[in-house]
Amino acid sequence: MPGEISPTGKQYGPGSTPELRASHADRDRVVDVLRIAAGDGLLTADELDERLETALSARTLKELASLTADLPPTLAAAGAETGDVVRIEQVHSGPVVRAGRWVVPRRLELAVTYCKVTLDFTEAVLLHDTLRIDVAMTGKTLTLVTRPGVVVDTDGLQLVHSRIKYRPSPTGSDTPVTLRVELVGHKEHGRVVIGPTRRTLGQWLRGGPGSASGRA
Fold this sequence. Notes:
Number of domains: 2
Number of helices: 5
Shape: globular
Mean pLDDT: 81
Strand content: 25-35%
């Protein structure tokens, strides 16, 4: 199609070959665009799941281009600049929450002062088997809500007037590890709470989800 835009930001001309093979970097860029679109409300959770599955199995640039053809060009441009590192910076503001169908990056940088942070992996989309979280956090509580197969390594985290409460998910010996979270850096004052959701009696009877165990 004349004027078609590839995931790399290049435009296909009349004499170009859009059947070029896609690289891992091309797929990653499209995944970033889809993640941003879902976060902005442009894609539903089902649409995100469907397009992510297609993106990860796409073999050509043309296949990838079709996944973002109905999204704003500015969004695609922003996604092209998005790497595997996500940085969150907040000071004395509202809570930072990542929950639902959010896409877990390879690396997350937390530069947060007196803001509660909750990372809920219960329904998170896992594209990698390892997540490194560089922590530079003072005050409040850092909560990691896990699920079976998600393990957290806290050996690289230095605590200053802070403490860790780790309640591993109940898993069997045959449960594979789907995500290893590595906490590194330092946490001053406050707490680090790690574990699955706790359900109330009513939620348990209804079979509904619980709530994170960490509190400010």
